[in-house]
Amino acid sequence: MFLENRTAPTKYGFVKGVPAGNPGYTVFKGIPFASPPVGPLRWAAPREPESWSGVRPCSEFAPAAIQLPGVAGGSGFYQKEFYPAQVDESEDCLYLNIWTPTLDPAAKLPVMFWIHGGAYNHGYSYEMEFDGESFCKRGVVLVTVPYRLAALGFFAHPELSARDTVNKSGNYAVLDIIAALKWVRENISGFGGDPVCVPVFGQSAGGGMTQAICTSPVACGLFKGAIIHSAGDMASTLGKPLTLEEAQEAGLQMCRHLGVTLQQLEEMDGGKVNSLLLEAAAQVCGPLSFRPTVDGHILPQPPGDAFAQGMQHSISYMTGSVSGDSSLRLSSGSRPVMTVWPEIEVKNGRAPVHVYYFDRAMPGDGAGAFHSSELWYVFGTLSRCWRSVAPGFTAGDYALSDLMADYWTNFAYTGDPSSGPRSVPIWPPFTCQRHSIMHFNETLPGASTAEELLRL
Questions:
Q1: 280: three-class secondary structure by DSSP
Q2: How far apart are CA 175 and CA 185, in angstroms?
Q3: Cβ-based neighbour number of residue 399 at 10 Å
Q4: Label partner for 266 (CA 20 to 30 A): which of 14, 55, 297, 337?
Q5: Integer Cα distance of 307 and 289 in angstroms
Q6: Confidence class of residue 239 from pLDDT cuts 50, 70 and 90?
């Protein structure tokens, strides 16, 4: 029945999807994975969604999380690139999306779990560069997830911590991701996915969130591998993490600056409170005050420290960056930043990491290989990009996109980008003997070393 009418079962009720690209694929847009984080749940750990009767239609994406004002539909570089149109925003935003090539529970396909970026204060799970058709045609289920952003996702305050003596305050967004992973574990088999074969991948702030859950005991066992895109040095993703005490003090300073109490903030509209706290943070704490917090429970220590000590989950890893990240070199110029952690892994006797470097200069202007540009290739959505207009992308770009998607697919299946259902050139891991890095550019990939890249 489910295969015929694109209906799938969940723990909370049936959902109905719509055709996605190829008529044989299905996309489910806006499946609730938690109760709306509104009212008394605004700054609280996510709770399970309410059940429903009948079949819930999932044909429209849910509103994006309330975020930094003026991002979507603006006139800046990234607005043109990824956010050209305004989208609805709401506190009621915890809805995930699933693209699948089959609804047969016996298929047990790997499930790629995507966490979007946006400096922890903007972005959403269905940006124009994200789509699951390319993964579906490779036999992979794609799940894209939102999380609460900015002040609504990361605000900490002593009174909030007193209400939840386990989870404290300041990591609501991280808990959202963990709740979505638990939802996938419990429900994805009804969408053709394998609940124990769920690699996570994320870029920029999404890479930082991936780092966070890779070192969180609360997330242990919920996923089997991780790809960390453009998250920079493991010790300093978008700034050093705050301790719970520092985050709570920042929350108090914001309230004093605004002349309001926590109760007054909780009585305000979500959009207003987010804007006010962002403005206050910029004045008293700095613009990146809202990010994951080292609270001793969800994050026992900064992710960079945990990786350095070998305390991250024992799973397969890939990591890399693009030339426009400004993260190729350490400040000393001695070696690429993206190799620091792989070197530590090797020294600690752990499984080797696969490392990449993307430097395809994008056509259409002089922006080069800018931060986030590789996403068009990984998701196979080059034709959606304004840069596809002639002369635009070449046949080599589409071949590169196919090859990168093949590597990501193999990783989803086996934890090794060279091994799996897709036939690809060998991608050597980073080892003591050879500091191998897969170099993606317009001439297609080639295995370089860290030393060779530094001479470019």
A1: helix
A2: 15
A3: 12
A4: 297
A5: 23
A6: low
Helix (H) or strand (E) holding 3: helix 2-5
Longest dimension (CA), the chain: 62
Task: Please give the model's pTM, rounded to 2 decimal places.
Answer: 0.95
Q: In degrees, to the nearest 5, what angle opens at C-alpha 191 toward C-alphas 186 and 197?
A: 60
Return the amino acid letter for 47.
R
- Between the CA of residue 215 and those of 299, 304, 399, what are the distances in Å? 7, 9, 35
At residue 234 the predicted structure's pLDDT band, cuts being 50, 70 and 90, is: low
Helices (H) and strands (E) in the chain, counts: 15, 18
199 phi and psi angles, rounded to 5 deg: -80, 145
Nearest 5°: the CA angle 242, 245, 248 is 90
Q: What are the extents of the domains in the chain?
A: 1-197+242-290
Percent of the chain having pLDDT more than 70?
A: 91
Residue 150 Rama label (left phi>0; alpha psi -120 to 50; beta):
left
Half-sphere exposure of residue 398, counting CA atoms within 13 Å on the CB side?
7
The more confidently predicted of residues 379 and 435 is 379
Q: What is the CATH architecture of 1-197+242-290? A: 3-Layer(aba) Sandwich (3.40)
Q: Which of 224, 212, 140, 234 is nearest to 185 (CA)?
A: 224
Distance in angstroms between the alpha carbons of the first and the last residue of the chain: 57
Q: Which of 130, 117, 131 is nearest to 230 (CA)?
A: 117
CA-based nearest residue to 234, from 287, 296, 295, 309: 309
Q: pLDDT (tens digit, 9 = 90+) per residue, 19-67?
A: 998 778 999 999 999 999 999 999 999 999 999 999 999 999 999 999 9
Mean pLDDT of 120-125: 96
Is the C-alpha dihedral spanning 106, 108, 109, 112 positive or negative? positive
